[in-house]
Amino acid sequence: MNSLGDSYKALVIGSSGTIGMAFATALKNDPNCRLVACLSRNTVPDFCLENEASISYSAGLFASEAPFHLIIDATGALTIDGQGPEKQLSGLNPIQLSRAFQINTIGPALIIKHFLPLLDAKNRTIYAKLSARVGSISDNQKGGWYSYRASKAALNMILQTAAIESNRSRPNLVFAALQPGTVASKLSANFVSADQCLPATVAVQGLMTALDSLTTKKGAYFIDYQGQEIVW
Ligand SMILES: NC(=O)c1ccc[n+]([C@@H]2O[C@H](COP(=O)([O-])OP(=O)(O)OC[C@H]3O[C@@H](n4cnc5c(N)ncnc54)[C@H](OP(=O)(O)O)[C@@H]3O)[C@@H](O)[C@H]2O)c1
After folding, report:
1. Which domains does the chain show, CATH number per domain?
2. pLDDT one-digit tens code per residue, 73-110
């Protein structure tokens, strides 16, 4: 990446996942990136999106490597405890709905709360969270996938709201909700065959190019791996 200078530091959260790992690899290969720190349940076994204390504890582990210039949160889940996305209202159950929000909305919101202070306050910085196009309310033509869609739509609102608040104290911070395209991974495996998917390397290269070109504004971006804006 070029927009963060020639000595930037990056942190990838969810680095055990397909997309998180592809980000970590791409950043390690970027000559302008001086440090790539990684967080997942592989690196910090207690880290859990459903436990704020573990998120706060994990943030503390990275304080000595701060300030970071780029944070990518690539966590998320579609199938939870073996339960896939609900196709119909009759399939809704409160436990699955609540766990989807815990993992896709509340956990990522608490990650922003605890990790934002690790970003450089003076220079250009980027906070990017993997969202999903299906979290767009305006783009929803097919229905279905209630808890995943709703938890990603709520995540998008958290990102937009955090971006507006942060703009006052951190005018050089760019917030982005990312749609990676359909990438073969543990998350997508039950719903699409691998030959219909983008390689994670292509999705991540596209997202990094798109992030590089974003200018600061009062609000978050919602963009895909080709740099196209998605309606909220
Ligand atoms: N793949 C796609 O086609 C696609 C499309 C649109 C959006 N996305 C979004 O992209 C992001 C990454 O997806 P992916 O395809 O790379 O999925 P993935 O390979 O399944 O990775 C998911 C990541 O989230 C972590 N995670 C899940 N639940 C957690 C929990 N309770 N506590 C801590 N970590 C947890 C996983 O950790 P463990 O390894 O420890 O389980 C892993 O690091 C997600 O937000 C997804 O919604 C993906």
Report:
1. 8-224 (3.40.50.720)
2. 999 999 999 999 999 999 999 999 999 999 999 999 99
Burial of 83 (0-12, 13-18, 19+ CB in 10 A): middle
Tens digit of pLDDT for each residue in 212-221? 999 999 999 9
Give CA–CA dist 21/195, Å, rounded.
20
**Residue to probe by mutation, ligand 1, list 21, 151, 187, 192, most atoms within 8 Å of CB:** 187
Prediction pTM value? 0.98
Q: Which residues line ligand 1 (CB under 6 A)?
A: 14, 16-20, 40-41, 47-50, 74-77, 103, 130, 132, 179-180, 182-183, 185-188
Q: Which atom of ligand 1 is nearest to the CA of 187?
A: 20
β-strand partners of 179: 224
